[in-house]
Specification:
The chain has about 210 residues and is of the alpha/beta class. It folds into 2 domains: about 120 residues, 3-Layer(aba) Sandwich (Rossmann fold); about 90 residues, Arc Repressor Mutant, subunit A (Orthogonal Bundle), CATH 1.10.10. A 5-stranded parallel sheet has the order 2-1-3-4-5, with helices on both faces.
Length: about 210
């Protein structure tokens, strides 16, 4: 798989390039939005990894222009932001995931592998299309809202495994136990599923 990586931090850029290359991916790197634009026009990629915060422009702006040019390449955002508006815009543009700085490169690799291995998932009366980011419950399209959607997606794609409280906190604009409990409760009610609370550790969607 061929990846375009846009990250303006040169050390992180080189670290991710080395890590992904060792994992068997072909990687082109860019340090600026202009450089990434030129590479995207001259090459065909299977995945974009785009930083949101850049000295000139941002990854959201780049993805918007690529989508306007009918480039639908799957995209994962790299961000230090916890801005729900930015996250919502990214998903509306067709991003398949985001990863929050700082992160372990191994986590990025896991996310890439998981996203391309779990394009479609069925769970009881729920059907999830990972490419279109659509959730159907009993055949009807369901809009969970950005926060509940990302939390549910994390739990579903890691079905049978613990998702830590900190991972779920990263989705929330204002991290707190009460805010997370409210979001989890709403998901359980809307999808009629049981999400197990592993006290002091996190949550798990058990296999059925």
């Amino acid at each position: 798989m061929k990846i375009l990586l846009l990250e303006d931090d040169q050390i992180l850029n080189e670290t991710l390039e080395l890590f992904l290359t060792k994992a068997g991916y072909e990687v082109d790197t860019a340090l600026s939005m202009e450089e990434a634009e030129n590479l995207s026009f001259d090459n065909r990629y299977d995945l974009y990894l785009l930083d949101i915060n850049l000295p000139k422009g941002d990854g959201l702006e780049l993805l918007e222009s690529l989508r306007y040019a009918e480039d639908n390449t799957p995209t994962i955002f790299i961000t230090a932001l916890r801005d729900m508006d930015s996250m919502a815009k990214g998903f509306k543009l067709g991003a398949i995931d985001y990863i929050k700085k700082p992160f372990n490169p191994e986590e990025l690799l896991i996310r890439i592998d998981a996203k391309f291995a779990t394009a479609n998932i069925s769970y009881g009366d729920i059907e999830y299309d990972g490419e279109s980011k659509i959730i159907r419950y009993k055949g009807e399209v369901l809009d969970l809202g950005i926060v509940q959607f990302v939390i549910f997606e994390k739990l579903l794609c890691n079905c049978g495994s613990l998702v830590t409280t900190q991972e779920l906190y990263d989705v929330l604009e204002h991290s707190s136990n009460s805010a997370l409990r409210v979001a989890i409760t709403k998901i359980k009610q809307r999808l009629n599923i049981d999400i197990k609370n592993i006290r002091g550790k996190g949550y798990m969607l058990e296999k059925i």
